[in-house]
Design a protein that fits this description.
Chain lengths: ~350, ~350, ~350, ~350
Amino acid sequence: MIRFDCDYTEGAHPNIIAALSESNFEQTCGYGEDHHCENARAYIKKAIGCESADVHFLVGGTQANMTVIASILRPYQGVLCAESGHINCHETGAVEATGHKVLALSHKDGKICAKQVRDYVATHWRDAAHEHIVQPGMVYISQPTEYGTLYSREELKELYAACRELELPLFVDGARLGYALAADKSFTLPFLAANCDVFYIGGTKVGCLFGEAVCITNDALKRDFRYMIKRMGGMLAKGRLLGIQFEEMFRDGLYFRVAEKAVANALRIKAALIQKGIPLLMDSATNQQFPILTKAQQATLGEKYALGFWDTTGGERDAIRICTSWASSDENVDALIADIMAL
Amino acid sequence: MIRFDCDYTEGAHPNIIAALSESNFEQTCGYGEDHHCENARAYIKKAIGCESADVHFLVGGTQANMTVIASILRPYQGVLCAESGHINCHETGAVEATGHKVLALSHKDGKICAKQVRDYVATHWRDAAHEHIVQPGMVYISQPTEYGTLYSREELKELYAACRELELPLFVDGARLGYALAADKSFTLPFLAANCDVFYIGGTKVGCLFGEAVCITNDALKRDFRYMIKRMGGMLAKGRLLGIQFEEMFRDGLYFRVAEKAVANALRIKAALIQKGIPLLMDSATNQQFPILTKAQQATLGEKYALGFWDTTGGERDAIRICTSWASSDENVDALIADIMAL
Amino acid sequence: MIRFDCDYTEGAHPNIIAALSESNFEQTCGYGEDHHCENARAYIKKAIGCESADVHFLVGGTQANMTVIASILRPYQGVLCAESGHINCHETGAVEATGHKVLALSHKDGKICAKQVRDYVATHWRDAAHEHIVQPGMVYISQPTEYGTLYSREELKELYAACRELELPLFVDGARLGYALAADKSFTLPFLAANCDVFYIGGTKVGCLFGEAVCITNDALKRDFRYMIKRMGGMLAKGRLLGIQFEEMFRDGLYFRVAEKAVANALRIKAALIQKGIPLLMDSATNQQFPILTKAQQATLGEKYALGFWDTTGGERDAIRICTSWASSDENVDALIADIMAL
Amino acid sequence: MIRFDCDYTEGAHPNIIAALSESNFEQTCGYGEDHHCENARAYIKKAIGCESADVHFLVGGTQANMTVIASILRPYQGVLCAESGHINCHETGAVEATGHKVLALSHKDGKICAKQVRDYVATHWRDAAHEHIVQPGMVYISQPTEYGTLYSREELKELYAACRELELPLFVDGARLGYALAADKSFTLPFLAANCDVFYIGGTKVGCLFGEAVCITNDALKRDFRYMIKRMGGMLAKGRLLGIQFEEMFRDGLYFRVAEKAVANALRIKAALIQKGIPLLMDSATNQQFPILTKAQQATLGEKYALGFWDTTGGERDAIRICTSWASSDENVDALIADIMAL
């Protein structure tokens, strides 16, 4: 069985394993204050073009989301996000566990827009009973979205302009950020860093064993973030494990290369799906593709491949998720393409 | 600089690194449902002599503590623990973050006893205003304690008898459990499993990169624990990383061997301290030793070794923590002993 | 200015004031354990036809909602409710403040149905990733709803049958329960008590100064509820104030008479609105009516009456809320009707 | 049975009942925005000598404490208070329910001092592991304390100077504030308002039916406090009930007269106890007195009076609480004194 069901089916890029192996007997202090973490932070600040950023390494995405959000919001505030957002759908209420409501907006291809945020905020404050309603306190988006789609430069700029005007911090979940950067070269890390208040660079799904690098660019949001990490159970004793991985990823661009290869393979699969006339749920430019397959097609491919079930679409068809990653070999991708074409 | 300041200054036992390396390209499902986790669970159930236990792998100790405690308590209940307990002192309020008060009892060498628990509970229910007071809902201890001391078999049995009688689940934090098992061979994993309701086997400080194996032996506490893990941000996407480590540790007893060596080295250091006439804060039988050193002694040793500051003891002396681990080489221990004897 | 904008614009039914005045110098113990509370509990148990119920008096509706919900749910569970539900819209995230997600279902006239609950639960458990999704843990409805509409006997029975089958406690918010009972005489308190697990009889909006009587009929939900009340800040020191009010309300049926008069007046206003050809947002049978008025009509009535703004409906019209209560005098209602007819 | 066991055994000062009765048919808006609340706020601002203060009315003390504390602290911060503080002992973990640890300091006669706060904060920041420890974020005291004792002007000034220097907001719980003001005329409301950041004037225990007036004098703590009240379930629909009571209390000094009479009666009882040679647990100057009575004395007085049990003191004696209030008649106090003298 060849797995294409998600982008965390293998361990990590071999360079990561090698780096962990080589550094294994080094003695360092704990909790992310070692020299590997320092190096990784320096590389990342350079990569995002923001020397003043605070960079923290967390183990996973849900942890990063809940820690950042709980750190920003006042108790009576909620976080605006797309109805399809990860924090709204797939984190078992981790944000609510911190006492905050997720304020879900309808989405288009997994995205929300500046106008929706402006309207929501205006409606809130216009309501005579606004004190009885959760106050919008920040905005959360993902790049790429849950559907593999992308915010364009223009869309993000408009959204961030609205956020600044409304004094709502903008937080970008980048669990799969590498794939977005690979898919749209005009959307760079420095551009992102300049157009939000806090974001993270996902490692777990982009070649690391685990790890998310939270970058806080807004000075007002930096204070005592390490206390927050510890309080939320997210402070890794051997913090160096995160430092070593991100050092490896950002020393000379491995992060970008890993993502590029995965996206290239995904686009090859996409091309095959289109050529074969198989409809796509979304027009995704990243490492996740969502073909709508008949039960028969699912059964045929299912003999050889593990694919992800995404959603029912009615009738005899379902939306299926196909993911590539650093670990998808060209051979396996070729095989899948051949089998798609043979459907 | 040779570090003896804590037991997480290196990576992991080389077998762990090798296992991660070998398994790196295997494809597995995520979230701890892969075959490595299954194997590790099977090994652990055998080692603890409890086939009916539920075993879950978490990344770190604070996360394990808050998840277990929040899973057990009703909202208005608190957790009884020693004033010196980790959850009371060094987790930045992670338990309170879940809405629960830590009910601190005075400790003797880091330990609490059955009588204290009985008295506390009796006092609570006797108070006419008991509904205005946090209700004791469970008991938390560590084996070994923060001071490296141990609960004897008899002490644990008495404590657990009290807990059962009072219907308070007993939770044992085993962040350094291996060292306790190595120090008192009569106190085995099956004995522990039979004398509490939930405990964890610490990996982070006993040779793993990270990881704690939570063992729930009381059926009433098992339900939906995986929901709790996810809700608290503790569900590792590549859960196999935990499975692979504990598989390695429990396949043929590596966990015990790692701990034994560390304890043996710690006892050699302890013997030197005693021989030299240096007072000890506690009579620890495990991998942590707490000599009381003069400022001059600290300065002399500090030229070559990183030791942990533990507490002021008044005057010119401080309690210092010396930790050994799987990674403490005999050479380094020999050197430290020689330098202690030369003080 | 004559107010019809809500049902809490005056103090309390004069009998309540008289009872508070008469009992003022009595000495009693605190926290709801006095003889007035005992009497009130006895009257209520009789009225609801459930001697085994636990009855607790709380000050307000949001407090009652959050205390009941936090008492029932496990940490990773959420509460199913109509999108228009009070807990979802107008409690500033009080439920989320206790760590739980509100799982909003689309509504029809403010109501949800058994099928929606069954479908939601089935979908949850069918999802391979269900551990990553908040688990439905209970169901919340209001009788009457936010729109003044009513669950019929049949609808409630079906909903409760689904809840029992799915093991989801059913909680009925009765902030305006009296008006529902007055509007549908077949829907009695004993019927309600037999068809949910916990509900409350609202006093604040039905003639009391304040107060909600929470009735827990399901034994499994009774334990330690007074601890919950105190922990949530809802334990009134002079609990007798609540007892005295509910004693007065339920000694000889004042609660029902108060509600009947308000509903009768509301239906007179409704008849006038219909006769005049003014559209209604909902077909409400209770003390709240929602005419859709032009801006001009609003301005005309606004010279003499305070009415509640409810919602924009597009164009030149808005949905307006007109509320009656125990305190709406026949004269004021007559005047309003005349002015409606003169529009 | 004549009750002296607490200060909330009767309803309210008759003027309060009269005012509620007189205003009963007035129509007002809800949620504390009516003219009675406006008047009461104006009276209170004048009484505390701080026109810029924000004044909010809450129903009870635990609710006031948890709302103020949760409003001030960042998630990883705790509140410093005396070990004997109400929030630490008698609120069923309401502060922890909001996610915050109570950082208990040893007390002297129920009080903490500036030096303790300075030392605690210095120790925190000096600790290399301070990020693993709950950060002190504010200070909570009560005036009078749980033991009826008082902070002198000098003590409060020193404490507040320390707080300002350390940037810790100082919150004064004034559940029985009236009695403190009556006992030490040099300690005025304007003095208090000038020497803390937020405090409340307790009504429940000083002549009202219920109600606490929270006064926020520090501008930085004012924002969105009404959202907090609603989110914590503390927003009273008929907020006017609180306004009417505080209007009555502060229109022409009723609050002070009520407290003075209670304190005068308490001091008469205290004099009798001293004259009789009965030891006192604390030298209280306020409406609560704590004689240490033998079991026999308790039994004798217990035939006629309800007294409060306070604490065991060892042997055959217990500390007993005797409370006076606005409602303690001179006759009853005379009778108690006679019976004490006859012991």
